[in-house]
Amino acid sequence: MTATEDRELRRALRGTLQSVQPPPVPLETIIRRSNRIRLRRAGAVVATLGLAGVIAVASLASRGGQQPEVRRRAPAWRHSAATQSSARAAVSPLSMQRPT
Amino acid sequence: MTEPRDELAAVTDIIDTDGGEDFGAFAASRWPGLVRLAFGLTGDRWLAEDLAQTALARAYVAWRRVSQADDPDAYLRRILVNASHRRFRRRRVTEQPGDPPETPVEGPADLVGDRAALLAALHELPLRQRAVIVLRYWEDLTDAQIAATLGCSPGTVRSQLSRALAKLRDSPALGEGDNR
């Protein structure tokens, strides 16, 4: 597009849009709309939280019928004894050799 | 019976006491420009006013952020352009170029015809190309500013602009206008 065409388009668009005479700003309507937007957003947050709560309760209820799997822990003395024996096994036999 | 100006002052007071600070003054100063920008994007006078209201309402919801923004106008423009795209997608509006604005039409009749032709040509363009044209030639924005408004890269803006200009040049609506 040439500079003249560019200028012409700018002039035409300005002429067209400047001929639009908007009415006075409808502040009350704008405030009402913004309140509706706030309400809708708050409603969406409440709905999301509610849905998350329902899902959480449902999953807890479905688990409630089953016995939770309990792992028996070995007594502390046994655990430490096992750790020590495995540590002994991990020591290389070469390191146990006496220097000649 | 209260004067409209008094009502406006009352609403502005409500807004001011509601923590909105100078939102009333901000809205009043931006309203004409927003309606005109929206008219350029939609070609429909009533839809343009509706979109401008939506943009200002959303700006009021986030007023603290908008008032503290470096460029509140850029924020407002972005809301408006997004709202117009969303409206178009949601309603699948089969757009018809609106009549050229009926109030007040100054100048000779062929000027009105030229405006109608320009609107018709604009509305043959895809949404994004139309937005690029209006933001460039009406708002006088740079490629980077248009890119920020549309959420794309400056390169995309340049390519959209050149495509839009090529289509406008070939548009029969504008061709007729030139031949007159």
Compile the SSE list and pairings:
The complex is a heterodimer of chains A (100) and B (180).
Chain A: H1 3-18, H2 27-64, H3 76-90, H4 93-96
Chain B: H1 4-20, H2 23-42, H3 45-61, H4 63-68, H5 72-91, H6 109-122, H7 127-137, H8 143-150, H9 154-170, H10 172-179
Task: For the structure shown, list the relevant keywords.
heterodimer; A: 100 residues; mainly alpha; 73% helix; B: 180 residues; Rna Polymerase Sigma Factor, Chain: A; Arc Repressor Mutant, subunit A; 2 domains; 10 helices; 77% helix; disordered C terminus
What this model shows, in words?
The complex is a heterodimer of chains A (100) and B (180). Chain A has four helices and no strands. Chain A has 100 residues and is an all-alpha fold. With 180 residues, chain B is mainly alpha-helical. At the A-B interface, helix 1 and helix 2 of A face helix 1, helix 2, helix 3, helix 6 and helix 7 of B.
Terminus-to-terminus distance of chain A: 94 Å
Tell me what portion of residues of chain A adopts beta-strand conformation: under 5%
| CATH-defined fold name of the largest domain in chain B | Rna Polymerase Sigma Factor, Chain: A
Poorly predicted residue ranges of chain B: 103-109, 176-180
| Most extensive chain-chain interface | A-B, 30 and 46 residues
Gross CATH architecture of the largest domain in chain B: Orthogonal Bundle
- Which runs of chain A of at least 5 residues are low in confidence (pLDDT < 50)? none
Shape by Cα distribution of chain A: elongated
Helix content of chain A: over 70%
Tell me the radius of gyration of chain B.
18 Å
Largest sheet: number of strands, sense, barrel closure of chain B: none
Quote the average pLDDT of chain A: 79
Bulk shape of chain B: globular
Class from secondary-structure proportions of chain A: mainly alpha
Query: In angstroms, what is the radius of gyration of chain A?
Result: 38 Å
Helix amount of chain B, in percent?
over 70%
Q: Assembly state here? A: heterodimer
Strand content of chain B: under 5%
CATH C-level label of the largest domain in chain B: Mainly Alpha
- Determine the number of helices of chain B (DSSP H or I, runs of at least 4 residues): 10
Helix and strand succession of chain B? Answer: HHHHHHHHHH
